[in-house]
Amino acid sequence: MTNDDNTTSKQSNNPDQPEKFNFRKLGPVFWISTLIIIVVSIIAMVIPARFQVASEDVYSVISQNFSWFFLLVVFGFGVFLLFLALSPYGRVKLGGDNSKPEFSFWSWIGMLFSSGLGVGLVFYGVAEPMEHYMKSPFLGGPVESAEAARIAMGYTYFHWGISQWSIFGVAGLAIGYFQFRKNRDGLVSTALEPLFGLEYSQTARKAIDILAIIATITGMSTSVGLGIMQMDGGLDIAFGIPSGPMTQIILTALMTGLFIFSTITGLKRGMKFLSSLNMILALVLTVFIMAVGPFTFIMETIIVGLGDYLTNFVGYSLRLQPYSGEAWVQDWTVFYWAWVIAWSPFIGSFVARVSRGRSIREYVMGILIVPPMLSFLWVGALGGTAIYSDLFNNTNIGEIVLNDQTQALFALFNTLPISWLTSAIAITLIFTFLVTSADSATFIVAGMSIGNTDNPPTGLKILWGLLLGLLTIALILAGGLTSLQAASLLAGLPFALILIMMIASVSKGLRREPNEAMKRRQRRRKY
């Protein structure tokens, strides 16, 4: 192992204590990444109109020319993970053969869910099915009808199911396998060593880690931007607080302040508490909606939606529209996959960090089953209730969504009892989701900056949080959703290639595992 500040994890004597923040340790990975983010933020704020036009051009070029690539690789990720889980390789642990999980199962699931796409799910849980209900995913397809509602729910399940979590799963598996089983550091560049050798180019290593940091901050800024915009819309529709850039900037500043507090308290205390709070708030809203809403309709919607999802999984996974020239798949599926890929360096590293001691089989099944099922429950309860409201009660939630997606969730609450309370809970949920996501993202990015993803310095995490807030504000001011989507596509495209190489790397590593590691564990019988 080389003694390089960006390729070596320097473990402290006490692994529970972060390293001290020392600027002299910050090498080119940190400085180049920071410079790129600051320059992009300044350009976006100084010439927002031109930046928005450029964002639209970037979005158009990538989505039109690389849609096939995104769909193919994401489908392949899911196939790869399922193969590993069902094969003898599934018995290999992310750690030593006798290692034990650091977190309980439900704490683990809560951290996965909160650090994953919690913000996006709250944003799109009502907005996506209602938009598909109003505007069909298929050319000439049904709209504002029972058949339109069924298609809308099935496609929303597809976007929030196994496919997106397989992206996280691939990144986390590669990083966790080499970090905890092979005792390497948690850097993306290190996970590629089986392909290029232990001593491959330091320049290439730094370039890969810089790309991982840029992708992480870009993907995270998309999610934070969506959450801030939704909170802004919710405060407007529920409490009459004027929406606009000033409110969004204040919300971003408040989020950053709470994130810093969470960071100072440490991963186990701050993150664990907020992750548990997220799960409780999400559960409260779901139970409330199911209690006061059309319970039977919701349950039937979930069952039918799950059946449609399983039936159409392969078709939707490989669906494009070359014959009609339509861009629906690019606007939805391709954007989602690129967004999630942009998140994957940080989610992968964080998932690896909290999954130490679990077998590959347990890891894969946990990633691919539990979070998607929680997502299905959320979409079924809230999205299903919104569709029921428009379909049978002639409300106008769909029209509101077409005009402004940020108000979708709160438009639903306005059709239910005590809307002020549910809106307040939802705003709190979005806020805490943002904090947990920012906390875990900056934890990992700080570690990538110095080559220690186990316990990076608190000061460095705070610094990256401030940079994340700066980029988020810049992208919101320079085009809002369009700029956020373009940023995800631009970051997701090159990192998809890195994920493919990570699959090849971990496959090569697993083939070298001794047979003893893959033997079925014998359970002790109690007499």
UniProtKB/TrEMBL annotation:
Record-linked InterPro entries: BCCT_transptr (IPR000060)
Protein's membrane topology? Multi-pass membrane protein
Oxidoreductase as UniProt keyword: no
Per the UniProt record, the source organism is Jeotgalicoccus aerolatus
PANTHER family (UniProt xref): HIGH-AFFINITY CHOLINE TRANSPORT PROTEIN, HIGH-AFFINITY CHOLINE TRANSPORT PROTEIN-RELATED
Q: State the family named in the UniProt similarity comment for this chain.
A: Belongs to the BCCT transporter (TC 2.A.15) family.
- Localisation per UniProt entry: Cell membrane
Domain of life of the native organism? Bacteria
Q: Which UniProt keywords apply?
A: Cell membrane, Membrane, Transmembrane, Transmembrane helix, Transport
Q: Where are the transmembrane segments?
A: 29-47, 67-86, 106-127, 157-178, 210-229, 249-267, 279-306, 334-352, 364-388, 420-450, 462-481, 487-510
Q: What is its main location?
A: membrane
- The entry's protein name is Choline/carnitine/betaine transport
What the entry lists under Pfam families is as follows: BCCT
